[in-house]
Every structure is written in structure tokens, then in C-alpha cells.
């Protein structure tokens, strides 16, 4: 009897500990503790990113970079008296959308960038990379970006004269905006650290297109490269990727050269930023590119057609329009100019 | 025997303490290590991620709905409402134009968008767009009489456009707003570009306020000439002898002034370039104009025009009976 009692007491003493040890791993408290630890790790990586972004680059021969964050100095805040909308607060969890916009000086430039900024002010976690086609950044674009309230990076790189004037005699000319977009990609590669926790999407947005707000939410979940229809390209109402019943892209619904590897417009795809960083050699080809193959020259380095992710309800909705703005006829300016050049238009 | 039992008990207790201490040490070391059940932590962090995304989306929706305002009474502070009158007509780029215009207007507080279609019935494209825009709006429609409608191939200046539509909007305002309502009426075409600052410049208009317009009249910008805070003339290269040689986007009329002049309207018979004058002549004289935009020295609105998209391939496909899916709205 005493033996049994001692065995019983031993059992009673040991049992709670065994139970504790076995259920330790399923205890939600421990999961919470591990999540917290993960958060702090992510916080530290985000902080280092902020630090990198705040570092101004040294002036190089062809381009300079100037980056700004949401936190503004009091002087800048007073200059924004007339801005009524800030972008929605920066969320720690939403993947950032890096929008690369090449732009060049012409009469409608300020108008185009203004209405583009008005659109972007609605999109949370958007970082606008504006690349000017000039040897030096202009005050016009600089002050527009500062006053907008957006997160932005202002870069510039000059295209060779033949490209800017549009002398397309040679079929292997560099299309507009190539150098600028490549500079945007280069900036991303030099300023972001590749890690598993880095989340973001790269989108090439020309300054004369029209974007719906829904488009940005569709592209945010891109894992590799996502695609969707674009209106008013290729001489059609819209061009779209061909998606089969299994939800995979199998071809392209275009009339103009549908046999291109990627028969899609610049506004019709977005790339996960990790993929951009993983393949530092992937850029838009500068020369020897046939008309309509510019997008292919980049995408073929990044992804195969089978890996494309169709968005916009399996590519059945149009969320971006390839609008073009008419060149204003300034006939009445005359040779000496009618209007005061000091007034910015 | 008792001694043996005591010894055994002692052993048992020793064993117990040993085991429990080992267990506690093990538990402590577990605390210091990352959990090897990453599946669970990833699942829960994914849950947190997606919840946060939903929250952001809902916050955005909330913001948009709040921007609608209370139709019963003005939100605090009570800003005069800007009634933006936009005539529109069905063409390929219509949805794109209205989309990006709505994205600009959504930033402006106390704004009421009056959209008037040049159509016998309200189209579902515009109705749906307005519903989803998040703006307080009024949707009207009226068709321009056949004689005054531009034909295919006509230059865009041949006949005045949007006249009946703007007049219908004025009529709606006269029927639905009273002398106690504060506000200002602005005629905003759907292809122009507007900066956000412009709307604040026009909000507190007593009679008619004016400002420069970019990229119009064949010059970089047209503007009123201002001396000592008063408008004395207009700086424009095209037909400067008009009573009011400015563009539709260059002025705003206060609502009380419109209501006090029930006969004031745009005239279909107006000559080219005189459409604005046909309304303003009945409302105000040049001396009474209020200059804005830093005494009319800043350009806050641009008369941009959108190219007609080339449909060469689409037309070819239609001839073959293989046109694009019409159920996909563009």
C-alpha cells in the first residue's frame, strides 16, 4: 500500500509537468511571442531602409538623386498651404507600389504631372519615382513634387538627341523613356535591400495615361509579374492577355504582332520588386529593339509566360487607359513669344 | 523498512525536483529560440497582413464616404459648396476622362458634381461611374438639337458645344437651391486639368471671379489684366475684342448671383468664342470681376485636350465581324 501511494504521488507530481511540456508548443502565448519577435525584426529592416532613403547621393556625371519622405520640415509645411489631401497614412503591412514615370519638358508637362499627382494622392503606400529627360532637374518638377505631399524620388538622365527629337529613321532606335525607366530600376536596386520581408511592386506609369484607383489595389498582390488589359493601344478598344479556364495566361488578344513573347503595353504589367532586385541584369534594351518589343526586352529576363498572374477579373476589366494628350497649338505665340515666360505653365 | 521507504521517498523527491528543473530549463531555452512551428506563425502573420489590408481598404472607403458629406446639412466647418458643372458626351475616352476628373474632385471639400450628358437618356456607364466615385453628384441629361450637333469630320469649333447641357444644370440649380444657399458655380469640362488650389481660389466668390487659363487661345496662357486689385482688361491673342475674352475654365459665378438673374444663360446662337460672354454679359461688368490666383499671375488650370484614340485595327476587325467584346466597358 505505501508503495502504491508513493507511485501515485509521483505520478501526480510528474503529470502536470508532462502536460505543460506537451502543450507548450500549441500555446497561443508562445505564438504571440514569436510574432512580436518577427515584428521587431521587420521594424529594424524598415528603419534601415528609411535611413538609406534619407541619404542623399553624391552628384554623378549624368544624374542626381534627391529623395524625400513624409516627415517634412516646418518650412516645407507652410509651403503646402493649399494642399488639402495627404496620401492615406503609410501602412506597415501594405506592399509599396513604386511607380516609375519618365517625363520630358513640353507645354502640357505640368498639367499631366498635376493630374497624375491628384490620382496618386488616393493610393496608400505609393512611392513615385519621376525621371526627367534632361541633363539637370527642373524647378517646375521639383516644386510640383514637393507641394504634392507624395513620397517621391526625383531623378534625371538625358536621352541622346536623336531619341528626344524622335528621329526614327533607324529602325533600331531607342524608344522614348527607356533610359529613364532603366534609371528608375537602377535606383531601386541601389536603395532597397533584398530580403524575404521586402514587399513591393514596380509599375511603369507614363504621365499621359489614365489610371483607375482599383488598378493599384489589383497590382499590390503581385508575386512575380502580373498583367491586365489596357485600353486604346494597338489600334483597338483594348488589348488583353488571353487567359484560359485554369486562370493562366496563354497568349495575347492583339492584332499588332500577337506573336511577340510579351505582346503587352508598358501600362499593362507590374513586377514584384524582389524579382527586380534578384535579377540586376534585367533592364529595357537600349538599342536594336523593334517597335513594340520594348516590354519584351525587359520581361523576358524576368519571367516566362506561364508564370504571369492575370488580374482585373482574369483580364476581363479595363482599369487603365492609354490616353494621349493633344499637343496644344501655340500658333499665336509668334516668334518673340506673346506670353510672359516667367509665368510657369 | 521505514528507512528504506524514506530513502525511496527521498529519491522520488530528488527525481521530481531534477525533472522539474530540467523541464523549466527546457522551457526557458524554448522561449529564447525562434519557434520551429513557423507554419503557425506564418499563418497568423498572414492573417494579420490580410486583416490590415482590409482595414486600409475600409478606411479608404470610409474616407470616401465621409467626403460625401451629410446631404441634410453642411459639415463643420460650413464651406460654401462648389457646384462643378461638367457637360459630357459618349465617346471612347469618356470613361477615362470622367475617371481622372473624379479623382481630382474627390480631394476638394464641399463639392457637388453636376454631370450633364448630351444624350436622350442617362447612360449606365456614367451612372455607375458617379455612384462609385464617392462624390456628391447630380446626374442630368439633355440632347443637343440636331442642327447644332457637330457632325463627323467637323472641326470642333464649328458649333458651340455643351450649351444646352450647361443651361440644364443652371436650371437645376435654380429649381433646387434657394437664396439662403451659399456657393459658387464652375463650368469644368471633362478634358481639362485642374489643380487643387484652383478650387480654393474660387470658393469665396461674391459675384464673378476670374483667373488665367493655360494652353488656350493659341498661346501658353490667357489671363485677365489686373491693376491695383481690379480687372482692367484681358491679355489674349485671339479675338481680344470680345466682351469677355476668356475660356469657360477661367471664371466662376457665385450661386446667389445666378439665382438673382433667372434669365441668364448660355446662347446657342453665340458666335465662335463668345459663348462665355453670352452668359457673363447678363451678370456682371468687367469692373466687378474679382481677380484670383495672385492677381491673375499663376496658372492653376490647363485647357488640355485628349487625342482621339486610333481605332484602325478595331475598325478592320469590325468589318470582319470580329470586333472586341462590347460587354467589356472601356
Automatic annotation (TrEMBL), chain A:
Topology in the lipid bilayer: Single-pass type II membrane protein
Cofactor(s) listed in the protein's UniProt record: Mn(2+)
Gene3D superfamilies: Spore Coat Polysaccharide Biosynthesis Protein SpsA, Chain A (3.90.550.10)
Keywords: Glycoprotein, Golgi apparatus, Manganese, Membrane, Metal-binding, Signal-anchor, Transferase, Transmembrane, Transmembrane helix
Record EC number: 2.4.1.135
Pathway the protein contributes to: Protein modification; protein glycosylation
Predominant cellular place of this UniProt entry's protein: Golgi
Record InterPro entries: Glyco_trans_43 (IPR005027), Nucleotide-diphossugar_trans (IPR029044)
Catalysis: reaction(s): 3-O-(beta-D-galactosyl-(1->3)-beta-D-galactosyl-(1->4)-beta-D-xylosyl)-L-seryl-[protein] + UDP-alpha-D-glucuronate = 3-O-(beta-D-GlcA-(1->3)-beta-D-Gal-(1->3)-beta-D-Gal-(1->4)-beta-D-Xyl)-L-seryl-[protein] + UDP + H(+)
Subcellular location: Golgi apparatus membrane; Membrane
Membrane-traversing stretches: 7-25
Pfam families in UniProt: Glyco_transf_43 (PF03360)
Family indicated by similarity: Belongs to the glycosyltransferase 43 family.
Protein name, entry field: Galactosylgalactosylxylosylprotein 3-beta-glucuronosyltransferase
Organism encoding this protein: Huso huso (Beluga)
From TrEMBL, chain B:
Keyword Manganese found: yes
Enzyme class, spelled out: transferase
One Pfam family of this chain: Glyco_transf_43
Subcellular location: Golgi apparatus membrane; Membrane
Functional pathway: Protein modification; protein glycosylation
Cofactors demanded by this protein: Mn(2+)
Protein's UniProt name: Galactosylgalactosylxylosylprotein 3-beta-glucuronosyltransferase
PANTHER family: GALACTOSYLGALACTOSYLXYLOSYLPROTEIN 3-BETA-GLUCURONOSYLTRANSFERASE 3, GALACTOSYLGALACTOSYLXYLOSYLPROTEIN 3-BETA-GLUCURONOSYLTRANSFERASE BETA-1,3-GLUCURONYLTRANSFERASE
UniProt similarity note: Belongs to the glycosyltransferase 43 family.
Catalyzed reaction equations: 3-O-(beta-D-galactosyl-(1->3)-beta-D-galactosyl-(1->4)-beta-D-xylosyl)-L-seryl-[protein] + UDP-alpha-D-glucuronate = 3-O-(beta-D-GlcA-(1->3)-beta-D-Gal-(1->3)-beta-D-Gal-(1->4)-beta-D-Xyl)-L-seryl-[protein] + UDP + H(+)
Membrane topology classification: Single-pass type II membrane protein
InterPro entries per the UniProt record, alphabetical: Glyco_trans_43 (IPR005027), Nucleotide-diphossugar_trans (IPR029044)
Keywords for this protein: Glycoprotein, Golgi apparatus, Manganese, Membrane, Metal-binding, Signal-anchor, Transferase, Transmembrane, Transmembrane helix
E.C. numbers: 2.4.1.135
Signal peptide: none
Amino acid at each position: 500500500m505505501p508503495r502504491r501511494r508513493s507511485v501515485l504521488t509521483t505520478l501526480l507530481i510528474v503529470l502536470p509537468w508532462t502536460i505543460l511540456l506537451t502543450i507548450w508548443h500549441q500555446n497561443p502565448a508562445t505564438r504571440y511571442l514569436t510574432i512580436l519577435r518577427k515584428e521587431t525584426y521587420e521594424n529594424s529592416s524598415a528603419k534601415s531602409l528609411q535611413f538609406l532613403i534619407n541619404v542623399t547621393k553624391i552628384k554623378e556625371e549624368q544624374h542626381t538623386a534627391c529623395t524625400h519622405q513624409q516627415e517634412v520640415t516646418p518650412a516645407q509645411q507652410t509651403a503646402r498651404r493649399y494642399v488639402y489631401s495627404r496620401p492615406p497614412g503609410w501602412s506597415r503591412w501594405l506592399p509599396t507600389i513604386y511607380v516609375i514615370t519618365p517625363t520630358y519638358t513640353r507645354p502640357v508637362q505640368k498639367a499631366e504631372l498635376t493630374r497624375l499627382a491628384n490620382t496618386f494622392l488616393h493610393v496608400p503606400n505609393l512611392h513615385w519615382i519621376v525621371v526627367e529627360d534632361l541633363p539637370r532637374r527642373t524647378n517646375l518638377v521639383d516644386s510640383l513634387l514637393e507641394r504634392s505631399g507624395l513620397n517621391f524620388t526625383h531623378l534625371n538622365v538625358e536621352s541622346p538627341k536623336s531619341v528626344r527629337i524622335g528621329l526614327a529613321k533607324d529602325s533600331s532606335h531607342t524608344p522614348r523613356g527607356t533610359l529613364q525607366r532603366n534609371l528608375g530600376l537602377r535606383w531601386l536596386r541601389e536603395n532597397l535591400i533584398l530580403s524575404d520581408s521586402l514587399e513591393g511592386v514596380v509599375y511603369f506609369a507614363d504621365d499621359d495615361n489614365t489610371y483607375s484607383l482599383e488598378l493599384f489595389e489589383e497590382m499590390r498582390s503581385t508575386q512575380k509579374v502580373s498583367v491586365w488589359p489596357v485600353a486604346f493601344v494597338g489600334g483597338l478598344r483594348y488589348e488583353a492577355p488571353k487567359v484560359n479556364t485554369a486562370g493562366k495566361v496563354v497568349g495575347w488578344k492583339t492584332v499588332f504582332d500577337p506573336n511577340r513573347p510579351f505582346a503587352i503595353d508598358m501600362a499593362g504589367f507590374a513586377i514584384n520588386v524582389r524579382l527586380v532586385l534578384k535579377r540586376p541584369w534585367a533592364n529595357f534594351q537600349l538599342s536594336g529593339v523593334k517597335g513594340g518589343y520594348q516590354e519584351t526586352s525587359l520581361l523576358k529576363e524576368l519571367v516566362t509566360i506561364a508564370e504571369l498572374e492575370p488580374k482585373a477579373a482574369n483580364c476581363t476589366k479595363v482599369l487603365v487607359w492609354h490616353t494621349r494628350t493633344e499637343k496644344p497649338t501655340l500658333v499665336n505665340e509668334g516668334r518673340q513669344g506673346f506670353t510672359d515666360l516667367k509665368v510657369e505653365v | 523498512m521505514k528507512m528504506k521507504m524514506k530513502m525511496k521517498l527521498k529519491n522520488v523527491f530528488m527525481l521530481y525536483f531534477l525533472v522539474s528543473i530540467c523541464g523549466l530549463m527546457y522551457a526557458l531555452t524554448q522561449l529564447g529560440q525562434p519557434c520551429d512551428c513557423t507554419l503557425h506563425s506564418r499563418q497568423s502573420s498572414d492573417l494579420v497582413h490580410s486583416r490590415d489590408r482590409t482595414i486600409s481598404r475600409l478606411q479608404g472607403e470610409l474616407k470616401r464616404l465621409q467626403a460625401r458629406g451629410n446631404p441634410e446639412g453642411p459639415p463643420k466647418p460650413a464651406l460654401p459648396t462648389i457646384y462643378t458643372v461638367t457637360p459630357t458626351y459618349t465617346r471612347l475616352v469618356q470613361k477615362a476622362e470622367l475617371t481622372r476628373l473624379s479623382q481630382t474632385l474627390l480631394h476638394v471639400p464641399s463639392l457637388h458634381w453636376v454631370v450633364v450628358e448630351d444624350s436622350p437618356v442617362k447612360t449606365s456607364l456614367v451612372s455607375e461611374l458617379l455612384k462609385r466615385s464617392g462624390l456628391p453628384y447630380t446626374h442630368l441629361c439633355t440632347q443637343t438639337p440636331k442642327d447644332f450637333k457637330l457632325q463627323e469630320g467637323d472641326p470642333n469649333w464649328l458649333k458651340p458645344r455643351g450649351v444646352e447641357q450647361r443651361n440644364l444644370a443652371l436650371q437645376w440649380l435654380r429649381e433646387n437651391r434657394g437664396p439662403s444657399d451659399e456657393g459658387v458655380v464652375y463650368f469644368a469640362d471633362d478634358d481639362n486639368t485642374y489643380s487643387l488650389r484652383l478650387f480654393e481660389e474660387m470658393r469665396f466668390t461674391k459675384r464673378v471671379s476670374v483667373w488665367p487659363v493655360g494652353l488656350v487661345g493659341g498661346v501658353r496662357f490667357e489671363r485677365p489684366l489686373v491693376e491695383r486689385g481690379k480687372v482692367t482688361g484681358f491679355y489674349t491673342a485671339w479675338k481680344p475684342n470680345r466682351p469677355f475674352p476668356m475660356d469657360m475654365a477661367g471664371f466662376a459665378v457665385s450661386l446667389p448671383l445666378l439665382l438673382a438673374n433667372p434669365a441668364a444663360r448660355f446662347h446657342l446662337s453665340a458666335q465662335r468664342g463668345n459663348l462665355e460672354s453670352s452668359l457673363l454679359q447678363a451678370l456682371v461688368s468687367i469692373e466687378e470681376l474679382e481677380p484670383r490666383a495672385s492677381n491673375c499671375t499663376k496658372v492653376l488650370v490647363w485647357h488640355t485636350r485628349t487625342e482621339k484614340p486610333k481605332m484602325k485595327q478595331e475598325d478592320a476587325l469590325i468589318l470582319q465581324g470580329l470586333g472586341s467584346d462590347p460587354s467589356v466597358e472601356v
